[in-house]
């Protein structure tokens, strides 16, 4: 049983390292969808396996079964989960929770940024802000470094992010990487795929 539950973690590692291969062989829109689904699915599989291992190990402990009234015979009828595996599963779940909370904290801090400060900055900054309607934020430093044709490309690129809701793909990949750090390469590939997608849209629009 332990081997079957460890298998999703192996698949997640393989998927993370195969992401760049997928990226190079698919159109950016297909790559974005494929990598995002792979990222979310791998994260859920790993978390499910860790949860089962952690819960199974806890259920096998005589002290806990006595406290919660579990049937000791039921949990002893299958292959026992080795202590290093069970303790490791608990440690991984706790680390995952801490990582997710840290990522949420970073996102909240980012939302406190004042857009007026960014627009007036001399740093070259441009990004899309999803919403209804979405907005494109461009700093004076960025506009000053581009001619009119380059500005058209910039806006076409950012509007592509809004039109195709790229932030949703990035949220899934980011959450998966926060919960399962092994999937960080997949998250980077999803981000790169959305940029390729926006670049190709801008090239088609501007010519």
Descriptive report:
With 207 residues, this protein is mostly helical. The chain is 77% helix and 4% strand. It has helices at residues 2-25, 28-59, 62-68, 72-75, 83-111, 115-119, 140-144, 148-163, 166-179, 184-206, and strands spanning 126-129, 135-138. It starts with a helix and ends with a helix.
Q: What structural keywords apply?
A:
single chain; 207 residues; mainly alpha; two-stranded antiparallel ribbon; 77% helix
- SS element count, helices: 10
- Overall pLDDT confidence: 83
Report the count of strand segments: 2
Radius of gyration: 23 Å
Strand line-up of the largest beta sheet: 1-2
β-strand percent reads under 5%
Please state the structural category: mainly alpha
Spatial separation of the terminal alpha carbons: 57 Å
Catalogue the unreliable spans: none
Helix content: over 70%
The largest β sheet comes out as: 2 strands, antiparallel
Order of helices and strands: HHHHHHEEHHHH
Shape: elongated
Summarize the helices and strands and which ones pair or pack:
Layout (H helix, E strand, L loop, with lengths): L1 H24 L2 H32 L2 H7 L3 H4 L7 H29 L3 H5 L6 E4 L5 E4 L1 H5 L3 H16 L2 H14 L4 H23 L1
Antiparallel strand pairs: 1-2
Helix pairs in contact: 1-2, 1-10, 2-5, 2-9, 2-10, 8-10, 9-10
């Amino acid at each position: 049983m332990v081997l079957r539950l460890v298998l999703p973690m192996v698949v997640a590692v393989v998927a993370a390292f195969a992401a760049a291969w997928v990226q190079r062989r698919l159109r950016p829109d297909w790559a974005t969808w494929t990598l995002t689904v792979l990222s979310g699915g791998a994260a859920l599989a790993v978390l499910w396996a860790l949860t089962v291992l952690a819960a199974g190990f806890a259920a096998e402990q005589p002290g806990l079964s006595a406290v919660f009234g579990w049937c000791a015979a039921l949990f002893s009828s299958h292959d026992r989960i080795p202590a290093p595996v069970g303790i490791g599963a608990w440690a991984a779940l706790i680390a995952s929770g801490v990582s997710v909370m840290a990522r949420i904290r970073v996102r909240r801090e980012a939302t406190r940024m004042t857009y007026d400060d960014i627009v007036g900055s001399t740093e070259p900054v441009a990004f899309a802000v999803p919403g209804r309607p979405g907005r494109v934020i461009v700093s004076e430093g960025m506009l000053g470094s581009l001619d009119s044709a380059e500005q058209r490309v910039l806006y076409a690129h950012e509007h592509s992010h809004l039109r195709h809701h790229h932030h949703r793909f990035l949220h899934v990949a980011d959450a998966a990487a926060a919960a399962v750090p092994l999937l960080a390469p997949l998250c980077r590939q999803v981000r790169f795929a959305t940029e390729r997608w926006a670049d190709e849209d801008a090239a088609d629009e501007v010519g």
